[in-house]
Design the sequence.
């Protein structure tokens, strides 16, 4: 499979595989594409702040959906928009506040894939914080040839995030009740990286999620998120690429991954490894009991996570995502 990336590939990788706990990154992508239309290589911080603010005003005016997952908090941009709409801030004051408060993380982190900043580098812009954003030829080139497609993709991504955040805000009390069940029997994090040699015996150097080779960036991941389960039991641990792990984050996986996890656990149960007892003690002494207990935990995760599936789809399977295959090949061969 070819692993040469073009500018458009780097952009799509940023949008598709960035870590989006809020909508800042999507809004910035939309903003800089629109600013590239003005044929200015250097954008004053005020003009950047104004365009960014206008995008949020337009977005929240249509339907004010949540802009981050945590229902107990509002984003900086939501608070600024609310202050403007309630008359606490004038338009110019709101723009000034955007420039001061909204860009500390998103501008430095936008040109990254997961936590990897080296792959993209400063391909699309560099900046003097608080003064100017300097746009590069790579951005103008993709904007000239793909702007409509990229803006539609950003709008779609923004809608997906808002939908996922809305789901996480619903039934919050019921979700917390489920979390309390696990908190009572939970324990502090342990050093799960010590499990890598054992897990490699059943998984090799193949990522559990994408099926591609792992070289140096090997993570131990909880298939069902630890932030709910509150334990590090071996039946729920797999090896994955760091990028797969970080992008999945605390989302719910589809049943195909659950079935894959169950098959792996039964493989361990068929061995003579002493850790098979840990699985038996946690899930049951027969395949039927283990299957039922795993399904029980999975059903609880659905409620606790408000059906917030990875990539917002119960059928998402990284093994069949062709663009990701291209990306991970590029990362593996760096």
Sequence:
């Amino acid at each position: 499979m070819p692993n040469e990336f073009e500018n458009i590939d780097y952009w799509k990788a940023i949008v598709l595989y960035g870590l989006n706990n809020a909508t800042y990154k999507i809004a910035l992508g939309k903003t800089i594409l629109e600013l590239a239309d003005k044929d200015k290589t250097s954008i004053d911080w005020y003009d950047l702040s104004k365009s960014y603010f206008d995008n949020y005003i337009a977005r929240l005016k249509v339907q004010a959906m949540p802009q981050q997952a945590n229902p107990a908090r509002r984003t900086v941009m939501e608070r600024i928009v609310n202050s403007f709409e309630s008359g606490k801030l004038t338009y110019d004051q709101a723009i000034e506040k955007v420039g001061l408060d909204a860009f500390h993380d998103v501008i430095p982190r936008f040109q990254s894939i997961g936590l990897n900043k080296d792959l993209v580098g400063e391909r699309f812009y560099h900046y003097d914080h608080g003064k100017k954003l300097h746009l590069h030829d790579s951005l103008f080139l993709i904007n000239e040839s793909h702007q409509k497609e990229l803006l539609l993709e950003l709008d779609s991504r923004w809608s997906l995030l808002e939908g996922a955040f809305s789901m996480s805000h619903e039934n919050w009390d019921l979700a917390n009740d489920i979390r309390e069940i696990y908190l009572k029997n939970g324990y502090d994090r342990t050093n799960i990286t010590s499990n890598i040699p054992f897990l490699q015996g059943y998984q090799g150097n193949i990522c559990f999620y994408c099926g591609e080779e792992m070289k140096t960036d090997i993570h131990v991941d909880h298939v069902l998120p630890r932030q709910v389960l509150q334990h590090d039991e071996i039946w729920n641990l797999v090896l994955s690429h760091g990028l797969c792990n970080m992008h999945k984050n605390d989302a719910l996986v589809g049943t195909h991954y659950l079935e894959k996890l169950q098959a792996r656990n039964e493989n361990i149960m068929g061995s003579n490894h002493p850790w098979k007892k840990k699985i038996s003690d946690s899930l049951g002494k027969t395949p039927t009991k283990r299957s039922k207990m795993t399904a029980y935990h999975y059903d609880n995760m659905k409620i606790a996570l408000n059906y917030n599936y990875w990539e917002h789809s119960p059928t998402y399977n990284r093994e069949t995502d062709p663009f990701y295959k291209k990306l991970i090949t590029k990362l593996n061969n760096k």
